[in-house]
Amino acid sequence: MSSESVRRRWPAWYFEAPLLVAGYVAFGLARAAVYRGDAAATSTAVFVQRLEQTLRIAVEHPLNHAMLAHPVAMYLTGYFYRLCVLAVPAVLIWLRVSHFARYRRLLAVLVVLMLLDILLVWLFPESPPRLAQSGIVDYMATYDILGGAASRTPSRAVNPLAAMPSMHIAWTTWCAYTAWSVLRRRGPRRAWPVWLFPLGTALVLLVTGHHYVLDIVAGVALVAIAIGLTRLVQELYNRRCTKF
């Protein structure tokens, strides 16, 4: 089936856009509703802290304190944390308009990783460093950077005890993977810089005290699993089609 015939059978953008927005809202509400209490989240956080200390990758505290003497850096990282997720709809629009042949599969990867995230948040509730690690300064909440103060308390839209895995890393890694998979065909060297986006996001998550290193690793792994599952389902579907 050609790309053009697939495009004709796909819902028009004015039908699809509200569905995607509704899906994102439903994801946010579901993630916020998966609230298993402070005890379970603190227990997981303590385990992660001890494991990172054993592995000698517990860098959250020194990175966080490196920001405190630099007000401009604090605000820049705070704004980056809040606004980097806008890259997801931007990449989706770019894909749909300019690279529709890859749009469906990459959208499926995004949907799968978000569904898997809800399951993992239920299985592994975790308080972030800013709430569970001694000495971490939650400067986004202290200075209320883009509504940072509201993120301290649970609500219908916020679950502060859902740090594992990091969806900021999952989303920005998906953005980088999407851009890389498209751009590498034109030139591999031109494609590699897109990975600086999730790397920068990882640094911001650590310095703001929103995530542990292992949360970031889990976020990247989540994207890899979603890509693998999507490919597996597509291969099984193609094999079934060839039999008939």
UniProtKB/TrEMBL annotation:
Regions that span the bilayer: 12-34, 72-94, 106-124, 161-180, 192-210, 216-233
Domain Inositolphosphotransferase Aur1/Ipt1: 48-228
Cellular component GO terms held in the UniProt record: membrane
Chief location: membrane
Keywords from the named record: Membrane, Transmembrane, Transmembrane helix
Intracellular or extracellular location(s): Membrane
Membrane topology listed for this record: Multi-pass membrane protein
Record keyword ATP-binding present: no
Protein name per its UniProtKB record: Phosphatase PAP2 family protein
Organism whose genome encodes this protein: Amycolatopsis mongoliensis
